[in-house]
């Protein structure tokens, strides 16, 4: 009870609440601008978050995360352009609703769906994360090393058909993580030591500049092609006669519960991604809806049905809570955005896993509480901003990109705060990785595996070496421990599934090409 | 790209082989500092070699077939179109960002940020990097920088006085970070608002005059320039307030220091 009250006190002060409100607003605006993702938003806000108290900083980042997810539905509904790939399913019914002059109805539906998904998955997170974390108390170095390996196999699933590229990027991330001093023996691992020894590179590559470079600068460079796309006339949003009645949503309860389950479950599987969840929930809603339509009651999904907006939005937001389950309990990020959140925790010296639920219980309650508050503010701001969104969508790219670029560089500078030399070096790291990230994106290389490698590299190396030492060099230690063995099997299954899935997709596309050619 | 990765991977393998093999105290069974980097290098070489083979053998065969079916031209025939407006903008951005990072400490935050923001916004608004307008905009660039420096100095001096009075009157509130940032915000808003209200119609008139004279390129240039000038001044000062005043990040003053 004392821990719970301490947690409430951590997020209950007005400053934290103001940061949550700011985070939600920033996230919604960011998510509403096509091309800008939640991951990029969290990476941009990271330097500010680490200047704040741990709980306040995390609350702000989680608010950005929450806001960006709901924000992505705005351009999907109003323009038929998803703010990020996870809002694609929202277009199928959201945009037809806008074309029918019912955009306010669609936006309200998306808000309600997001709230249900957010709160529902939060409850599941609060129930399951401590249980999993308690189980991890049984883990030794061998189990932890195997767990890190499972985390790295997420690369297989997030790389899709680009498996070799994904593994290469993951290995590159590990190579970056291994730069600098070896934490066990303090051996220097630096290329050209005569040149690099006196530079801040001797301490290794910091996570924040790397994240900012890979997600912020590279995306901004990539988006330069959009500066010539011109302006457009935003749709008018009118409330008249289009506010859905609460009973319409009450009638959807079964579909919402299903979407919540799908979203939380898929979100909790590291690397599965919300895009799978939104399509599954949409498909489910479609099946559930079919008989009613035959009776001629309402439009079918795909032609402007509110269910087609609510179901994917519930699943999309439920993924957020689901992705936090492995992140907080095992230290394994569920997606790229939670990888950055995990990075924020590690920078603050907080290690996710069982110790988090024992030593930092107030912080856990603060994280859960801030998610709750973020969801509440999300509803308020989303509803209040419905008439403003069309204006946000017209923000010219020539104004937006310079702001992102300068904020990215200054953000990576701010990590070191008062050490000007190291701080300037961080700007260089962010810029170099941003340029590398741009070329990688341009050549269809996935970026997220680099982050996984950077985050999990240390955990993998330290635990692997400790396990080998304790087992006196016997590699079968990973097979003798049932938990480690289970993780290894999971890793193999994960890679095998990704390979099978990738092959199936390429077979499909070959068939399609063949048909097209014919 | 895969070939570049292959070269990098081999270089990384060579580097990992030079890492001193040190083991943890009393741990003869520790694989050592170089074990994992070497393993990673091997994985990187395997993946990049696979990609090189795939793109050069399978990829070349497929693209040849696709070109034959679609009647597309070979890559060599399109080489002349490689540097379009977008590529020029990207190169300019990378060069500007590099210059920004390199001169940040010596020239200082205020000047570098104003110049970079102005140039980026201006060229992005034009949608291309054109040398003639680039030359023409040297004067507004200089004026905006001088103006930002002046306004910045006025604000910083006022903030110093506020803190000074806070100390002698023993008013901690005047010395607190959020209040200091708020005072700065109000002060700069008071300074900038009348100036923008005065300048904006002038800029608009020039733009309209250019538009009426049929010089649409000039009108677009005026529009880009006014947008860039306003954005660079406001953003530079706002970033100073957030990073230096609110979060106490030591932003270098460089030549202004």
How would you concisely characterize the structure shown here?
By secondary structure, chain A is an all-alpha fold. Chain A has helices at residues 2-12, 14-32, 38-49, 54-71, 73-78, 88-99, 103-135, 141-159, 163-177, 193-196, 207-222, 246-250, 253-268, 274-294, 307-330, 336-347, 354-359, 361-384, 389-392, 397-414, 420-442, 448-470, 477-480, 482-517; strands spanning 180-181, 188-189. Chain A contains 24 helices and 2 strands.
The tally of structural domains of chain B comes to 2
Number of helices of chain B: 9
Note the overall shape of chain A: globular
What gap, in angstroms, lies between the N and C termini of chain B?
44 Å
Provide a count of the helices of chain A.
Answer: 24
**What is the number of beta strands of chain B?**
0
Please report the two chains with the greatest interface, counting residues with C-beta closer than 8 angstroms to the partner's C-beta: A-B, 64 and 63 residues
Structural class of chain A: mainly alpha
Strand order of the largest sheet of chain A: 1-2
Helix content range of the residues of chain A, please?
Answer: over 70%
Distance between the termini of chain A: 70 Å
Task: Categorize the overall geometry of chain B.
Answer: flat
Structural class of chain B: mainly alpha
Largest sheet of chain B: none
State the main characteristics:
heterodimer, A: 518 residues, mainly alpha, two-stranded antiparallel ribbon, 24 helices, 2 strands, globular, B: 257 residues, 2 domains, 9 helices
Tell me what the structure shows.
- The complex is a heterodimer of chains A (518) and B (257).
- Chain A is 74% helix and 1% strand.
- By secondary structure, chain A is mostly helical.
- Chain A has a two-stranded antiparallel sheet with strand order 1-2.
- Chain A is globular.
- The N and C termini of chain A lie far apart (70 Å).
- Helices cover 79% and strands 0% of the residues of chain B.
- Chain B has nine helices and no strands.
């Amino acid at each position: 009870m004392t821990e719970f009250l301490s947690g409430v006190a951590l997020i209950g002060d007005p400053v934290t609440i103001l940061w949550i409100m700011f985070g939600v607003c920033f996230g919604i605006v960011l998510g509403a601008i096509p091309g800008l993702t939640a991951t990029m938003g969290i990476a941009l806000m990271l330097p500010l978050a680490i200047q704040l108290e741990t709980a306040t900083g995390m609350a702000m980042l989680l608010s950005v995360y929450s806001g960006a997810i709901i924000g992505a539905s705005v351009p999907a509904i109003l323009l038929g352009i998803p703010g990020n790939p996870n809002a694609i399913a929202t277009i199928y019914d959201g945009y037809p609703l806008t074309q029918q002059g019912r955009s306010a109805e669609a936006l309200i539906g998306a808000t309600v769906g997001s709230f249900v998904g957010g709160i529902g998955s939060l409850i599941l997170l609060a129930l399951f994360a401590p249980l999993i974390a308690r189980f991890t108390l049984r883990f030794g170095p061998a189990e932890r090393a195997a767990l890190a390996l499972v985390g790295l196999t997420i690369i297989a699933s997030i790389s899709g058909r680009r498996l070799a590229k994904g593994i290469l990027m993951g290995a590159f991330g590990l190579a970056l993580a291994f730069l600098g001093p070896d934490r066990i023996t303090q051996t220097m691992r630096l290329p050209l030591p005569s040149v690099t020894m006196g530079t801040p590179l001797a301490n290794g590559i910091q996570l924040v500049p790397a994240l900012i470079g890979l997600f912020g600068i590279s995306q901004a460079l990539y988006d330069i092609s959009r500066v010539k796309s011109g302006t457009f006339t935003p749709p008018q949003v009118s409330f008249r006669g289009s506010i859905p009645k609460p009973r319409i949503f009450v009638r959807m309860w079964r579909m919402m519960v299903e979407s919540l389950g799908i979203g939380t479950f898929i979100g909790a599987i590291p690397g599965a991604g919300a895009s799978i969840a939104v399509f599954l929930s949409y498909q489910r809603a479609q099946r559930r809806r079919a008989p009613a339509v035959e009776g001629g009651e309402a439009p079918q999904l795909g032609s402007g049905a509110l269910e087609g907006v609510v179901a994917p939005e519930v699943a999309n937001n439920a993924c957020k809570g689901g992705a936090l389950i492995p992140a907080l309990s095992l230290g394994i990020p569920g997606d790229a955005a939670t990888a950055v959140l995990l990075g924020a925790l590690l920078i603050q010296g907080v290690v996710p896993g069982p110790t988090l639920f024992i030593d930092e219980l107030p912080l856990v309650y603060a994280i859960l509480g801030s998610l709750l508050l973020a969801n509440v503010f999300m509803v308020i701001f989303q509803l209040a901003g419905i008439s403003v969104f069309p204006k946000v969508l017209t923000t010219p790219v020539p104004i937006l990109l310079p702001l992102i670029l300068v904020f990215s560089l200054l953000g990576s500078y701010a990590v070191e705060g008062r050490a000007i030399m190291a701080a300037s070096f961080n700007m260089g790291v962010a810029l170099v990785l941003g340029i590398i990230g741009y070329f990688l994106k341009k050549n269809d290389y996935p970026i997220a595996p680099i982050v996984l490698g950077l985050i999990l590299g240390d955990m993998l190396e330290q635990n692997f070496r400790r396990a080998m030492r304790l087992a006196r060099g016997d590699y079968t230690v990973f097979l003798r421990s049932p938990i480690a063995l289970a993780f290894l099997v999971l890793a193999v299954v994960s890679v095998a599934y990704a390979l099978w899935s990738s092959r199936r997709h390429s077979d499909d596309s070959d068939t399609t090409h063949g048909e097209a050619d014919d | 790209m895969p070939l570049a990765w292959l070269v990098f991977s081999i270089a990384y393998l060579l580097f990992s082989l030079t890492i001193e093999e040190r083991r943890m105290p009393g741990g003869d069974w520790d694989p050592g500092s170089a074990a994992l980097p070497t393993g990673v290098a091997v994985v990187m070489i395997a993946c990049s070699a696979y990609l090189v083979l795939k793109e050069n053998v399978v990829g070349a065969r497929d693209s040849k077939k696709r070109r034959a079916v679609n009647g597309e031209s070979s890559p060599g025939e399109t080489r002349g179109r490689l540097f379009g407006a977008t590529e020029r903008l990207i190169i300019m951005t990378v060069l500007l960002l590099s210059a920004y990072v390199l001169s940040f400490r010596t020239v200082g935050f205020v000047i570098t940020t104003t110049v970079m923001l102005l140039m980026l916004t201006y060229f992005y608004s034009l949608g291309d990097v054109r040398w003639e307008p680039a030359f023409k905009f040297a004067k507004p660039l200089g004026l905006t920088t001088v103006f930002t420096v002046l306004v910045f100095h006025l604000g910083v001096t006022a903030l110093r006085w506020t803190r000074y009075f806070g100390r002698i009157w023993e008013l901690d509130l005047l010395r607190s970070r959020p209040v200091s940032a708020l005072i700065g915000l109000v002060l700069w808003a008071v300074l900038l608002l009348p100036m923008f209200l005065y300048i904006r119609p002038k800029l608009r008139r020039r733009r309209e005059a250019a538009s009426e004279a049929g010089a649409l390129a000039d009108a677009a240039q005026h529009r880009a320039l006014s947008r860039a000038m306003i954005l660079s001044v406001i953003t530079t000062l706002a970033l100073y307030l957030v990073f230096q005043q609110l979060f106490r990040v030591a932003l270098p003053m460089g030549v202004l220091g």
